[in-house]
Amino acid sequence: MMYAISTKYMLFLEKLKSIIQNKDTLTLWMNNLLVLYAFFLPIAQSIKAKIFIAILILFFIRGDVKYYLKEAWKNQVVRAFVYLFVIYVLGLLWSENIKEGLRWVKSIKYGLYLIVFYSFVDGRYIKRVLAAFISGMLLSEIISYGMILHILPWKFSLLGVTIYEAPTPVDPSPFLNHIHYGVALSLVVILLAQQIYLSHKPLIVKIFMSIFIFTASANIFVTGGRTGYVTFILLLLILAIFYLRKWAIIGLTFVILVVGIALETSPILQQKVQQTTLSAKQLLSKDPNFNTSMGIRAGMYYYGMKAIGNNLVFGVGTGDSMDVIRDTAPKEWEGRKQPHEHNQYFSTFMKLGFVGLLVFLNIFYQIFRYKQEDKELRFIMVFTTLTVAFGILTTQFNLRFFMPLWVVMLSITLIQKNRQTILRNLNDKQIMLQIIGAGMFFFILYIFLKGSH
């Protein structure tokens, strides 16, 4: 019996050795894991992080790292993300609060993931990655409606590990912060609208997509993220005016109809509109109130501009922006309790001055000028970038969603559809089973590690 076990063990080692030595198999699995990464992106940050570690390990095991880094460096968008990371690191040199600075460097490091993803993405995986992200959002939406209809609990745990939890009973965003959730739903609506308009999918599939568009649009307006409302409206306006053209009137009518229905039926939207209107009136008064939700954001700009002083060119340092704002603001200002500036553009300007802001804006410039001949990929690239651009007007990269989302979508749109990094023919059924199996493994690992703590 011991001999049989030993033989099986040796066969397993031989099989493992052959896999490790087969670069094509490693590349295949990196692509499989990227699909999983996209699925868990809007669902579980811890699982997503573990999947990236696995991808990174395979990246180094595959070898030829120097070659792949050189190839990635040739891409101007990849370089733009590297430059942003570098200037955030350099900003530590004139920071006093190094601990806080390192925290911000950590939030920007996700841009470097593009180097790895870009090195292995196979064109045949573009649709799989896109479908995985949309499926993750669909799962979130189903749970959200389940909570709204009191079919599902507001908090669900498995073996003592919290799987999801809504912030409040009136804010049904199960996995993401409500700002991120609303913005992500807005992107999904646009991606599905593009598929309906441009693709040749069967009618039944387009009907299902249309239903998802309607339910996702409604879901945006029953969560508490005002950024999601604004992003949704802006993206649909851009879609209608610049892309739908002869269907622009229908698109604009849809925007007006959805917003009108939401204003009449969504209590949380009505509440947010009233709060925003009141905050705006108080800000425009002779004695501005900087202690409302909108006022705190306005206070960031007001006290921040006073605090930056003579540091307009290079900023106050990667870790010092909130410290100098707190030193400048009055003690009674509620914004002193905030961990960040609630705006990535302004935060970068405070930390790294005009130089840092230009380096950051260079990413957008390089993306919009990128020569992507495929219209579908160009569309996804542009609208993902616009989504992130609007989303970070009221939040930042520190919550680990917008930057990874941006990088994943860029990794599948900077390449060509005919690009093949995997040299073999792909079996759809086999790949699906591999991805599901790997997904179950990472989910069980997550439960085990969380439960053990």
TrEMBL record:
Keywords: Ligase, Membrane, Transmembrane, Transmembrane helix. The keyword Cell inner membrane does not apply. It is a multi-pass membrane protein. Residues 212-361 form the O-antigen ligase-related domain. Its main location: membrane. InterPro entries: O-antigen_ligase-rel_domated, WaaL-like. GO terms for molecular function: ligase activity. Signal peptide: none annotated. It is found in: Membrane. GO terms for cellular component: membrane. The chain crosses the membrane at residues 49-65, 77-95, 130-152, 179-198, 203-222, 228-244, 249-269, 345-365, 377-395, 431-449. Pfam families: Wzy_C. The keyword Nucleus does not apply. This is O-antigen ligase family protein. It comes from Sulfurimonas paralvinellae.
